[in-house]
Design brief:
The chain has helices at about 5-30, 35-50, 60-70, 70-80, 90-115, 120-135, 140-155, 160-190, 200-205, 205-215, 230-235, 255-260, 265-275, 285-295, 335-345, 350-365, 370-385, 390-405, 410-425, 430-440, 445-460, 465-475, 480-490; strands at about 220-225, 275-280, 295-300, 305-310. It is mainly alpha-helical. It has a four-stranded mixed beta sheet. Helix 16 runs antiparallel to helix 17. The longest helix has 28 residues, at about 160-190. The chain is elongated, with a radius of gyration of 30 Å.
Length: about 500
């Protein structure tokens, strides 16, 4: 519950529903509830609510929560964040629906057999089913309530001894299956989520934070959203984080931050906020590409979670080991995939090859086989591109784009472009145009592709395409030096006033 800022609210909802349900049961089904246990439940409820007021802000704390939850900016934010979206249109949603149906059927069967209705149990299941189906982040609550509710109802129904044995065996079997399934996936398909703090450095920039403090990197610091809370704990008060998991304090900058995180507005954002150190989670490959390709930034350090970039003019006192041998003991496929992509991103083919071999050695089975094979194809594409074999690179990259689990659009576009330029140098305008026009469905506003598409169309005598591409180029890039050349071509051949097709 600690990872959910509003976790205690769900606890209060749980206790309140139980109390209301037991009050109703007390008056309508008095055999269900005794006075003394109900009194103790009342004391627990009052104590829980009373304790909430023991805070520095008193009742104003609850007023602020209400304002926060009803703020239009926050409401609009919840509509786009995956964690707050519903799960009804997915496997998990279908499973929750099956759970509530089985509960209702067993609940009705219990009512028919005993002529008793447990209102508290019914309210609890309905409420948490709605919460779980509506908010992805809360979808783990209902299965726990459902499981205990089912066994409680079974315990209240009088079955024959033989039936009870079947129920016991079925229960033990279900526990065995679920336990085995959990252990199997924890061992063979480890994900980012681990329990009891194990593998915390897979989540958070543990060594990265140590590096920042040891090297005394210059602030202000920029960091991505998911690691802000951890960094605030590790490096404050020496450094202040740029953003953390709370929405409220960062509501005004979040839309701009989100665009930057996704790889847009890089120069504009860095010039506005003037940070000198950036800590970027490895999962944001487009943003990492922007930092790697920028003349203003240099890579200082990276580990399993994040990469650290510093302003290029700043000196680095410590040089750390950045070789992939550090990751020999990583037991998480997701982390290895991020590392593989990052090494490719910074054009370190040897590093990527080393990480790929780690993947094969540790995870080459089951559904991971496809991921690893796709990464191998991507590595082959980079090697082919490096050696100038652009057609081979294109074959691999097109397959990955259409059928793979990963894709590299930037390399594909660059391969198309260089293949087109190679054909252009040989005066093979038809071949060149084929590859140039493959770029435009992927990046419709690619300036070089638009220019050469217009130029090649002109060389081929296709006035319709010439006008289409050149006019779009002029409308998008009116200040580009090539505009003067394009206008001269259009004027010289008297097609600048031709009707648009």
């Amino acid at each position: 519950m600690g990872q959910y800022p509003w976790g205690f609210i769900f606890g209060l909802i749980f206790i309140t529903i139980i109390f209301i349900g037991e009050i109703i049961n007390f008056y309508f089904s008095p055999t269900y509830v005794k006075k003394i246990p109900l009194f103790y439940l009342f004391l627990i409820l009052i104590t829980c609510y009373t304790v909430l007021f023991i805070n520095p802000y008193g009742y104003q704390y609850f007023v602020s929560l209400y304002r926060y939850a009803t703020d239009p900016l926050y409401v609009s934010h919840t509509k786009v964040v995956i964690a707050y979206k519903g799960v009804i249109k997915g496997q998990w949603g279908y499973l929750l629906i099956i759970m509530i149906i089985t509960f209702i059927l067993l609940f009705l069967y219990h009512f028919i057999k005993s002529r008793k209705v447990d209102i508290g149990l019914l309210l609890l299941n309905i409420t948490f089913f709605i919460i779980s189906i509506k908010y992805r982040r809360s979808s783990y609550f209902y299965p726990i309530i459902w499981y205990f509710s089912i066994f409680y109802l079974i315990s209240q129904i009088k079955f024959s001894q033989k039936t009870n044995w079947y129920i016991i065996l079925a229960s033990l079997f279900s526990f065995f299956i679920i336990g085995t399934w959990s252990v199997y996936f924890a061992i063979y398909y480890p994900r980012f989520g681990t329990r009891f703090g194990y593998g915390i450095s897979y989540y958070f920039p543990e060594k990265e934070a140590t590096f920042i403090k040891k090297c005394k990197l210059e602030g202000p610091i920029f960091n991505t959203y998911g690691i802000g809370g951890y960094l605030a704990w590790r490096i404050y008060p020496e450094y202040k984080v740029f953003i953390d998991g709370r929405f409220g304090p960062y509501a005004n900058i979040f839309p701009k931050y989100r665009r930057f995180e996704l790889g847009y507005d890089f120069t504009k954002f860095t010039q506005k906020y003037k940070f000198k150190t950036a800590v970027i989670e490895l999962k944001f490959q487009k943003l990492l590409t922007n930092f790697i390709n920028s003349d203003m930034w240099k890579l200082a350090y990276f580990d399993k979670s994040s990469a650290i970039f510093v302003y290029r003019s700043l000196p680095l006192k410590n040089k750390e080991d950045l070789t992939p041998r550090r990751f020999e003991n990583v037991k998480n496929m997701g982390i290895l995939r991020n590392l593989f992509a990052f090494y490719l991103n910074k054009k370190d083919i040897e590093g990527s090859s080393y990480i790929l071999e780690l993947m094969k050695r540790r995870f080459y089975y089951g559904k991971y086989k496809r991921y690893i094979n796709d990464n191998a194809l991507l590595l082959e594409a980079y090697l082919a591109f490096k050696d100038g074999h652009y057609e081979k690179a294109i074959n691999n990259l097109e397959y990955l784009k259409d059928k793979g689990t990963i894709k590299d659009i930037s390399l594909l576009v660059e391969s198309y472009y260089l293949t087109a330029m190679r054909a252009f140098e040989k005066d093979d305008f038809s071949e060149a145009l084929i590859y140039i026009e493959r770029i435009l469905p992927i990046q419709p506003n690619h300036p070089d592709a638009l220019y050469y598409a217009g130029l090649l169309s002109y060389f081929k005598g296709d006035k319709v395409k010439t006008l289409k591409y050149f006019r779009k180029f002029i409308s998008l890039y009116p200040d580009n030096p090539l505009v003067a050349e394009i206008k001269q071509i259009l004027i010289h051949y008297n097609i600048e006033n031709s009707p648009e097709e």
